[in-house]
Amino acid sequence: MVALIPDHARVNTSPQTILKDVFGYRNFRGEQQAIIESALDGRDSLVIMPTGGGKSLCYQIPAMLREGTGLVISPLIALMQDQVTALNEVGIAAEFLNSSQSFDEMRSVTARLKRGELQLLYIAPERLATEHTRALLREIPISLIAIDEAHCVSQWGHDFRHDYLSLGELGALFPGVPRMAVTATATDRTRDEIVARLELNEPGIFIAPFDRENISYSVQVKTDAKRQLLKFLQARRGEAGIIYCLSRKKTESVAAQLCEQGFEALPYHAGLDSDVRRENQRRFLAEDGLIIVATIAFGMGIDKPNVRFVAHFDLPKSMESYYQETGRAGRDGEPAAAWMVYGLQDVVRLRQMLDESQAAEDYKRYERYKLDALLGWCEVTGCRRRPLLAYFGDSLAEDCGNCDGCLVPVKTWDGTEAAQKLLSAIYRTGQRFGAAHIVDVLLGKATDKIGQHGHDQLSVFGIGQDMASATWRSATRQLVVAGHLRADAERYGALVLTDTSRGVLRGETPLQFREDPKLPAATVRRSSGVRAAVVTEDEGLWEALRDCRQMLAKEHEVPAYVIFHDKTLQEMLQYRPKTAAEMLDISGVGQTKLDRYGDRFLEIIRQQ
Question: How sure is the predictor about 492, in pLDDT bands with cuts at 50, 70 and 90?
């Protein structure tokens, strides 16, 4: 069964009907309906909606209701395949054109396109730039053009892609066709650039609230990162998650260590053999409870709804990157966790990578500002969600109660005198050494390095023995974040005084340092999602429903969540439908999925 709506019937079919009969949902969320109506009226639009907010429906439904084929421009092959598979499963005629296909496969898709059999075609921006593809598309009616991950057009953004720059020509190439630019994150500056570069015509601007209430945020100072990660994961065995690392080598070592500890973990980075990389991604999407340990090469467009946590083993590059990456957790709306550890070395390395890049100086300056904003956020002493939302121009009336800042209030201490000692030690040693050596000087340690440079003869030698080395490292990090110190990337992280250091040394700038908290396990909310809501007496039926879903997924060669989301199975568990009509009332069950799978699930429920 294919939900291809004949042209004469489109005017009599409403978005609400498509939502219920095809996708199986009762109500639109937020501004979905207004966005759809805008597209149906032929208007351009910019849609900024957090991951999991339902962006795809905003262009899929109007593409089905307008005459012709909807064109979706997407930057990743995996994203195209994922969405096309999900659309085919609900009976929508969708295909993609990309480099993963053979010549015969592309010819078959092209033939279907010319015959008017497709409601949605997914295509990469670089393919759309070719004259051959543009000539093909000019032969057919285009209902709508959706530009997914539209932030990729912004040269100030965190994921710029040069191929997106040519998409501004689409308005002239396809006059009268509404264009919809869609992204999960964009600051005011990025929004303006998207509109300008895509040459959107007086677009409707739709900005959904950025708050992902179901995600619990937690940030820790990196002490023993692997041990800290294992402690975080102990309560999350059997849950799907993503762990981000800065280097390829680290993704493999962390994945190997997790496997030694009994977790199912796979590495993912651009240096892996392409077949291995594809297979690891396929397994993550298809199997339950798998952890992927990855560089940022993994993730954009990942549609898996039941990712229960995203962990950052290293500091990301910006607030935008952090928000987008953590947004891959909890797309099903159930509780999820965003956890991160970071240290001074992360800061040094990111700044070094930036300084050594070939980018223009004004771009580097902006990237430094974004990194500093993230560092400042890491050091907040109260609710984390409020400053996170404020960065994107959103607000929260009161503290969220679902982050480490709310659950474990941070203590502060007067760090003015400690800062003066630290800055003095850096100055006296010639501003040529990193944090570890400076802390050794303050603690009065008789190391070979200290003896070699005669630093045991300085007045600052041993003046910091009243504080532990961990406290001195914390003070150093906080002075760097506050701008009173700079880690010189060209000299391997040597600490250097800044213009504001003088005010601290003279006592004109009082300082309060945060006391790095030790998070007891009991205060961190376990983010086990739907599974936690299943009471003991229902576990038999719950496992039977999941087994049925997994069996169907294997039969159809699709990820389990494409058959039904966890939330759909939970509603089956709660309401125990006995008839096809009752099954249609379950959220996520449309007519096509009822026809394909309904009897199998109904039989299991009847047997209980």
Answer: low
Q: Are 111 and 14 in a shared domain?
A: yes
d(CA 159, CA 8): 42
Q: What's the confidence (pLDDT) of residue 400?
A: 92
Q: Which domain holds residue 297?
A: 215-407
548: enclosing H helix or E strand: helix 539-556
In a domain, 523, yes or no: no
Please check whether residue 70 is in contact with residue 18, taking contact to mean a CB–CB distance below 8 angstroms. Answer: no
Is residue 483, in this structure, part of any structural domain at all? yes
Is residue 449 left, alpha or beta, with left meaning phi > 0 and alpha meaning psi from -120 to 50? alpha
On whether residue 63 sits in a domain, the answer given is yes
pLDDT by residue (tens digit) across 360-408?
777 777 787 788 888 888 888 788 998 898 888 888 889 999 999 888 8
Answer whether 0.70 is exceeded by the pTM: yes
Please tell me whether residues 509 and 563 are part of one structural domain: no
Q: What type of residue sits at position 88?
A: N
How does pLDDT run across 143-189, given as a tens digit for each residue? 999 999 888 888 655 567 888 888 999 999 999 999 999 998 777 88
In this structure, the answer to whether residues 397 and 430 fall within a common structural domain is no
> Are 351 and 231 spatial neighbours (Cβ–Cβ below 8 Å)?
no
Cβ proximity of 315 and 177 under 8 Å: no
Do 388 and 348 fall within a single domain? yes
Inter-residue contact 336 to 214 (CB < 8 Å): yes
Rg (CA), the chain: 27
Same domain? For 327 and 219 the reply is yes
- Do 87 and 152 lie in one domain? The reply is yes
User: 395 and 318 in one domain?
Assistant: yes
Neighbours of 152 (CB within 10 A): 23
Show the tokens assigned to 355. 């300084």
Task: Give the span between the Cα atoms of 53 and 327, in whole angstroms.
Answer: 10
Nearest to 89 by CA among 460, 558, 529: 558
